[in-house]
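User: I'm writing a tutorial on reading structure tokens. Could you give me a worked example: one chain, its sequence, then its tokens, then a sentence or two explaining what the tokens reveal?
Assistant: Sure. Here is the example chain.
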Amino acid sequence: MGIRQVLGCLSACLLFLVLAGSARGGEKVAGGIVSLAPSITETLFAMGLGEQVAGTTEYSDYPPAAKAVPRIGRFLDPEPERIIALRPRVCVGLVGSTPPPLVRLLGKFGIPTLLVDVSRMDAMLASIERMAAYLGHGEAGIRLREAYAARLKRLEARMSGLKRPRVLTVVSVSPLYCAGPESFVADAVRCAGGEPVGMDDGKAWQGVSREAFLSLAPDIILFAAHGTSVPDWMRKPPFGGAQIVSIDPAFVIRPSPRLIDAAEELAGVFHPGN
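And here are its predicted structure tokens:
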């Protein structure tokens, strides 16, 4: 069976589920926004649109009010039937993460999906303005972006002229992955007065060996791995020369306005007293 036939069968099944839910007098409020990523959820709340978020993915836990929003599945694998049953007026997802087949399927049900680029810090800021304009809050989006940009500019001015420690951000231990220099995490490190290090392959998330890890010679290991503690080998020779700073992964690996909070906090770690 070809992909068109598969999507056709799935669409028919989903339509049945939606109509059945409507016949039961579903409790979901129509016309809301469905967020397809935890970072999008954070951004929508930061924009003052939290009450309009009708659904979101797992791990959307910030701000605390987001925990009460209905779940529509996993970040990289949301469940279309849950989204359609919410009857949202729009979904908002991420370029490179939101599955294209999902976008096409939602379009068949008349649900538009806005995809924003958040691959770098400046792109994340631009996405705030774009989302706000798309959702009918253009002027508020401009003001919010300008406020965040001003905070970053002040932080960068404070860090100007200081010696920059080499910072390696660990995002996974098994397998060993780090944030590359061409990532939004690296941008936050730069704003905080650090020099992000990683493999020279242009990838945002980089698999590395222990030998490559050692060759990068970081002054600071920023440990942001989910669900695990710093492994013993990172604390022992020949790896034990770097300062290890543990941080909540959600604070730095979600491309949301909290990246700015993270940069401000890290500046105090990288440059105490400045």
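What the tokens reveal: The radius of gyration is 21 Å. Residues 1-30 have pLDDT under 50 and may be disordered.
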